[in-house]
Specification:
By secondary structure, the chain is an alpha+beta fold. The protein has 33 helices and 25 strands. A hairpin with a 3-residue loop joins strand 1 and strand 2.
């Protein structure tokens, strides 16, 4: 009998405690080890106990508290066994004893259990090691929740040691992000850690806490209370009070803008990535997020400034940036910034909301944006479409696409070129220079900063408006002439896009006459027909966006000739837009199209592209769930388009991403249903679609393709063609071997060098028209599915669909990865923007026509040795 056993037998009450309470809380195994005096076995079993059974959650505090009711001798014996265990765990690997190890055993777990067993005892062992373990917690994104960590922290506090700011940040970050059922682990303890006011480690938070112009603590403390979806009147009153107490409103606003401009910058204290979250340093600190939301809500309460909408818009974009394995960084922050924009007065804030609506694809955030814009439109008595049209400011442009600003003896010209705004400078002598003259930077620094910001604003808005206009074909939108002219043709920003498009005025196709290169153009030029004849519409004439569907081929060709002759680059495909009439096969199938079936697509890229094009889609995961097909709602036409897809599971073990989603999809039919028809669903892992409707309700049949309006059919199929053309694995130049396991070699070959789809057919026609004007025209020809390019060493065939390259003779594949060194020369003039495949084909043609000048070893190493 050991001395400890003697102590136990000498104290019947503790003995009874062991028999009853310890068996109930810890289970019979641990109690039996303790009663047998095998403290080492008891210590080993205790290391696993918090991960097993009810004590791993709500019963943990009772389990840990039982040690304080045990006499000191057995506790000391257990502690001695744990110290021995710790020395074993920290010994060199060749000196560790051979024994079965629990997969989560670690020295940190041993230190944690020492804190639990030794709670309340004087001088528990390994104090320096426990302090080091607590400090190391500050390097983690989240503290492991395999076992509760607060006993170790509490013991450090009892012994009078201070926590580092990084450790406090880790504890609070863990409590803010772990599931609710873990809250009793660290939540209560984290709530006692009130200093510093924010978690350290983020650039914006560090800057905010270091603010010298006023005391930032009251502002940040109130910002941390922003836990609701919207600011309440009570919250606003508190915010106004702390802002007023902070001092000069302009100074406070400047500080808040400075802080928020730093959101998303690299962490100042990098974190160790956990096994389940490899991108820990890309995430926002979960504890600081409420403060971000509160600061965004405070900005509209301060004096207005042009930087406020910009900063809030950037906050939305940054918060929605995707992080691998997680998704959007912080949708709650994005929502808060949107509500702040909605409360910000001025056209700049409305413009930012409208711009975000064209760019944001995160579904819950899109819903918030729609609600905000609809509410703003209702408040102004306008329609939703009108509010987005009127939301585009002039950004200081005094005429369409142009503004000149004098800064002392020098000047700056802000001009739109294509879909980009360019800022150029002239010095006092009138000579154009690359950057702002030194005197301007010295005497007008704020003005220079403002002009650069304006150029970026115009860039972002032009891109957003081009996308919005491209979606107008299915919106059935029309305008009276005087309204359209003010909102589109003569608008300083939108006019730069509208003047490069074709419109119909009372069904007469027209375009603006001031296109670059037009020999008849004058500053006062107006609308002209394709023949160049002027048109003077009445103020109430109906204006629509021209579409090639149901237009005579001669008319379409004439517009293409005119735009190319005048070197007009349209902001998106219009004159050269693909048209998809019904095929004989589709007339035979009747209610569905198989035109884009049988493809393998990259799921995540497909998912992002569908959102950009206004479709709804659900990521396929290997879960017990059902998913609808990719859908596009067409309320103006009373229809819903569906693209049937399912996950590809042919390569089990390699068909899923690290986050658990399927990597690839297989494609099937395109169908149309009435807009209010019950939705179709299929199992998330693949299988047939079935319509889900109320019991007893009849099934809704798909709409015959012959009854779908030609414009709708063409635009929907064009979208689907785009999905396949952009996301198919067949256009990945690195998959010549067929991808993982070679499973996709047959598909990759058939797609990468097969028959052309609608977009590729259009590309072939455009190339045939463009080749004569190229410097390499004598070396190129379009033959069938390929652009043939004659180099100095050999001839090449570039597929017009995938842009894959074959070398002649022998049709040997030549891999040229987009973005490689020297692989993307300037393709020159293109009649429209947005077709990256066309630009890539022309870039490869320019490169290969001068193949003796290629130095990139990734290309030259593939050339056959002569």
């Amino acid at each position: 009998m050991t001395a400890v056993d003697g102590q136990l037998n000498a104290h019947p009450a503790p003995y009874g405690l062991l028999r009853e309470e310890w068996k109930r809380l810890l289970g019979p195994v641990t109690a039996d080890y303790l009663l047998a005096g095998d403290h080492r076995a008891a210590a080993d079993h205790l290391l696993r106990s918090p991960r097993e059974g009810p004590m791993a959650h709500e019963g943990f505090r009772r389990w840990a508290g039982a040690f304080t009711r045990l006499p000191e001798p057995p506790r000391r014996a257990i502690l001695a066994a744990l110290v021995d265990r710790w020395h074993e765990e920290t010994a060199p690997s060749d000196r560790r004893p051979r024994r079965p190890r629990h997969r989560e055993d670690s020295p940190a777990d041993v230190l944690w259990l020492i804190a639990v067993v030794g709670a309340g005892l004087p001088d528990p062992p390994l104090p320096a090691e426990r302090a080091a373990a607590v400090a190391e917690m500050g390097e983690r994104h989240e503290i492991s929740q395999a076992v509760p960590q607060y006993p170790l922290l509490e013991q450090e506090r009892v012994e009078g040691r201070e926590f580092t700011a990084a450790t406090i940040a880790s504890v609070r970050r863990t409590a803010a992000s772990i599931p609710v059922y873990y809250e009793n682990y660290d939540g209560a303890f984290a709530a006692t850690l009130t200093e510093p006011v924010l978690n350290v480690g983020e650039a914006w938070a560090d800057r905010a806490m270091a603010e010298q112009r006023f005391d930032p603590r009251p502002v940040l403390a109130h910002a941390l209370t922003a836990t609701s979806s919207k600011p309440s009147a009570r919250w606003d009153r508190g915010a106004r009070a702390v802002l007023a107490a902070a001092g000069d409103p302009d100074t406070v606003r400047s500080a808040l803008l400075d802080w928020l401009a730093r959101v998303g910058r690299p962490r100042t204290l990098p974190l160790q990535a956990s096994w389940y979250q490899q991108q820990a340093n890309e995430l926002y600190d979960a504890f600081n997020i409420d403060a971000l939301r509160g600061l965004a809500w405070m900005l509209p309460l301060l004096p207005p400034h042009p930087d406020v909408p910009r900063t809030l818009g950037a906050l939305v974009a940054g918060a929605l940036r995707k992080v691998s394995g997680t998704g959007a960084r912080s949708p709650r922050t994005a929502t808060a910034a949107i509500h702040a924009l909605a409360r910000t007065e001025g056209e700049e804030a409305l413009a930012e909301l409208a711009r975000l609506r064209t760019r944001v694809v995160h579904k819950p955030t899109v819903k918030v944006l729609d609600g905000v814009l609809t509410a703003r439109a209702a408040a102004l008595g306008l329609g939703r479409e009108e509010i987005e049209e009127l939301a585009v400011p002039s950004y200081g442009l005094t005429e369409v696409g142009r503004a000149e600003h004098a800064l002392g003896d020098a000047s700056a010209l802000l001009a739109v070129e294509g879909t980009r705004a360019r800022l150029t400078w002239r010095n006092a002598a009138g000579k154009q220079v690359k950057t702002a003259p030194a005197a301007v930077r010295r005497d007008h620094p704020e003005r220079v900063k403002e002009l650069r910001a304006l150029a970026k604003d115009v860039d972002r808005m032009l891109s957003a408006q081009a996308e919005r206009l491209d979606r107008q074909f299915l919106a059935r939108r029309s305008w009276v002439h005087h309204q359209w002219r003010a909102r589109y043709l003569d608008h300083p920003v939108v006019g730069t896009l509208a003047r490069r498009l074709i419109w119909t005025v009372d069904d007469v196709p027209v375009a603006h006459g001031t296109a670059p290169g037009d020999p008849d153009a004058t500053p006062a030029s107006g609308l002209r027909t394709v023949e160049g004849h002027p048109v003077e519409p009445g103020p109430d004439a109906e204006v629509r966006l021209w579409h090639p569907v149901r237009r005579e081929p001669a008319e379409v060709t004439a517009w293409q000739d005119r735009l190319e002759r005048l070197a007009v680059t349209q902001p998106f495909k219009q004159a050269h837009r693909e048209v998809y009439p019904l095929t004989p096969a589709e007339r035979t199938t009747g209610t569905y199209s198989n035109r884009f079936a049988g493809h393998y697509l990259r799921q995540h890229q497909f998912h992002s592209l569908t959102a950009v094009r206004g479709w709804r889609n659900t990521l396929r995961l290997p879960v017990d769930d059902a998913c609808p097909p990719a859908e596009r709602l067409l309320p103006e036409w009373g229809l819903r388009a569906e693209y049937w897809i399912e996950p590809d599971t042919s390569d089990l073990g390699r068909d899923q991403s690290d986050s658990g989603t399927y990597l690839r999809l297989r494609t099937d039919q395109v169908r149309f249903y009435p807009a209010d028809a019950p939705r179709n669903y299929a199992y998330a892992g693949g299988g047939a679609y079935q319509q889900v409707h109320r019991p007893g309700a009849p099934q809704t049949d798909p709409v015959p393709l012959t009854e779908v309006p030609e414009l709708v059919l063409s635009e929907v199929l064009r979208d689907v063609d785009l999905f396949v053309g952009v996301t198919s694995i067949g256009n990945d130049p690195t998959w010549a071997d067929g991808g993982p396991g070679g499973h996709f070699h047959e598909y990759w070959t058939s797609y990468g060098f097969g028959e052309l789809d609608g977009a590729a057919d259009t590309r072939r026609a455009v190339l045939a028209r463009l080749l004569p004007r190229l410097a390499i025209a004598d070396r190129c020809s379009v033959e069938g599915r390929y652009l043939h390019v004659r180099g100095d060493q050999r001839t090449y065939k570039i597929h017009l669909g995938s842009a894959n390259v074959l070398m002649v003779p022998g049709d040997t594949y030549l891999c040229i990865v987009q973005g490689g060194a020297g692989s993307a020369p300037d393709p020159g003039y293109l009649p429209f923007e947005g077709d990256r495949r066309l630009a890539l084909i022309l870039s490869k043609a320019v490169l290969l026509a001068d193949d003796t000048a290629i130095t990139d070893p990734t290309i030259t190493s593939q050339f056959p040795r002569s």
